[in-house]
Design brief:
Two copies of one chain form a homodimer. Chain A is 44% helix and 15% strand. In chain A, strands 2-1-3-4-5-11 form a six-stranded parallel β-sheet, sandwiched between helices. In chain A, strands 7-6-8-9 form a four-stranded parallel β-sheet, sandwiched between helices. With 337 residues, chain A is an alpha/beta fold. In chain A, strand 3 (122-125), helix 7 and strand 4 (145-148) form a beta-alpha-beta unit. At the A-B interface, helix 4, helix 5, strand 2 and helix 6 of A face helix 4, helix 5, strand 2 and helix 6 of B. Strand 2 (92-98) of chain A pairs antiparallel with strand 2 of chain B, so a sheet runs across the interface. The structure holds a DNA duplex (30 and 30 nucleotides).
DNA sequence: TAAATATATGTAACCGGTTTCACAGTTTTT
DNA sequence: AAAAACTGTGAAACCGGTTACATATATTTA
């Protein structure tokens, strides 16, 4: 039932090469022959098989997008940004979601094997837990790679990141100077996450800048998930009376913590400030509306895809780093007293 | 730099065939030879090229997932469900996002061409605007297809849908019998969306069941987006004093409408009821918490992927339809007066 | 008008694997 | 001891396209 180029050639009384030329508008084909071939193509509903094209052209027109399973509502926008650019340029998006809970090698291997097997022409990778050695290995394959949200410029790949330090810093500035808070807890993501780490550093440094010492006892580790936020609240509870604000490394944990507070009759944004990081879609609409640091998620995806595309088209040289700026979004949840 | 199977064969002093057998654990290869080959493979870091494998095996180990750009927070869970199952079975996910705004053919062709070109072994398709003819064409290609959220069982493909009628119906039951509302507006999605259509029918029929006539003047068309919700609010405003509730065909529009109301000092859940459909992640946490109809989004993705996988493995016969049940989630936004 | 160039097409090699088949040496069965 | 079955390997065809090269005719150009 499915017809091949050879059959089309035979039916049109020409050679495979001529059919191929017609298909690709390359080389010379007379009007007459072209028409004859196209009639056969239409009549039999012929479509070239991408698997054969891929092999002979040594490319797949596919770009891999790797995202961790923890990003939650966050990755929506990233995907949209990436897909929009790639599809406009004729590329397909192979989406791989990292299972960060499972044995890491397992999960890691899956997306890496897609690269090693040359299943994709390029990749946009956001793997919070990947180490440098692995990354250089990936980079060594020689296809264009963009590291999303992790700076691996020095390991030979383009990096598109966000200025987490200054994001966190501006939040602390606000909490300290506008509200006069002196004791601010911080809830981190998983320790491997460099985003979380950079935000933590921003938090520490900026406290210092304001002459406030930070205490390790006010730093709580969690995992960027809603459930993680709920769990960490239990550890947070004992210190609640000693602090004026809780700064969470993302919005989901902030939401979870606010919900837990409400259950106990504590009113976030009134009794205590709770702020987040990301500014996901719903941050504005929850109760109280969340003060947070906006990350340009759609742009993150879009710019990554654009970098991939330009790598794919022109052969550029050095790895590039793009740093996108965040900005503070002040809503209600940062008030207290 | 990149090494091929022929080179491995030469380096190990054997033929391509023997290397291939070693790689696939097929046929006979002596322990000795196998070891020698594996040493060469390790030494030179050889990985078979998937493009060649795909061609000779006539398969791609890839499943396409098609989603419209309107689904917003909704598709998160679907993707997760699909990806989880597929990756566990060794398949990759090619994600295509429909641009429902653009000339529809454009967008449509992209995901269809992936199928026609045999870039994927199967596809899970949620295309709200696709017509039956196009769908039978896709089905005719002969690869396993699952139609997500649209019943195309009669057109030869498996369908995984949700019982929109009874979802809407239970919502109306609740609004009428528990709250005694008599005038309920309905905000639809785009007219091509069969989900929206089915919910509308549920709304109409159930009103009738309760002896309430429905009025066309209380049906408003929108497009499932937040902005669309804001826009439709303008049309809704004149009738606000005549109704007790607004039933939106999804949560995003319900949220938008509530936000618009608040701007004007109208308190949703108090002055008027606003309810939605979907029960996305944030529905529970907005103000007021949204009464809505829960759709099992993760399961939708998971079950679709499972059907694809079983089609791919065993050769089954007739197209199957799976209907997932919804359930009512009562929160605060349905109160009024 | 001969040489150079443009047009049109076919042959065959190639992309990098898998798989069928043939063949030879071993081992097992009868 | 001959036949059958098992083990190990290579040659070559094949998957379905693309493309370099050869060839032939038609047009230009000098």
């Amino acid at each position: 039932m499915r017809i091949t180029i050879s059959q089309v050639a035979k039916l049109a009384g020409v050679s495979k090469a001529t059919v191929s030329r017609t298909l690709n508008n390359s080389g010379y084909v007379s009007e007459e022959t072209r028409k004859r071939i196209q009639e056969v193509i239409k009549k039999y509903g012929y479509t070239p098989d991408s698997k054969a094209i891929n092999l002979s052209k040594k490319m797949t027109s596919t770009v891999e997008l790797v995202l961790p399973d923890t990003v939650g509502p966050f990755y929506n926008e990233v995907i949209r940004g990436v897909e929009e650019i790639l599809s406009a340029r004729g590329y397909f998006t192979l989406l791989t979601i990292l299972d960060t809970k499972k044995e890491r090698n397992q999960a890691r291997n899956r997306y890496i094997s897609a690269i090693l097997e040359r299943r994709v022409d390029a990749a946009i990778i956001f793997d919070p837990t990947v180490d440098k050695r692995t990354f250089s290995k990936i980079a060594a394959v020689g296809i264009p790679i963009v590291s999303l949200l992790k700076d691996y410029q020095n390991y030979g790949v383009d990096s598109v990141v966000v200025d987490n330090f200054s994001g966190a810093s501006s939040m602390i500035d606000h909490l300290v100077t506008e509200h006069g808070y002196k004791n601010i807890a911080f809830v981190t993501g998983p320790k491997e996450s460099s985003d979380s780490e950079d935000r933590l550093i921003g938090y520490k440094e900026t406290l210092k800048k304001h002459g406030l010492s930070f205490k390790n006892s006010l730093i709580f580790e969690s995992d960027f998930t809603f459930d993680g936020g709920k769990r960490v609240y239990q550890q947070l509870r004992p210190v609640l009376r000693d602090i004026q604000a809780v700064f969470c490394a993302n919005d989901e944990m902030a939401l979870a913590i606010m919900e837990e507070m409400k259950k106990e009759g504590i009113v976030p944004g009134k009794d205590i400030a709770v702020v987040g990081f990301d500014d996901v879609f719903w941050s504005e609409y929850i109760a109280p509306p969340l003060t947070t640091v906006h990350q340009p998620m759609y742009d993150l995806g879009k710019i990554s895809a654009q970098r991939i595309v330009s790598r794919l088209f022109d052969h550029e040289s050095k790895p590039i780093k793009v740093v996108l700026q965040t900005h503070l979004v002040i809503r209600k949840s940062c008030g207290c007293h």
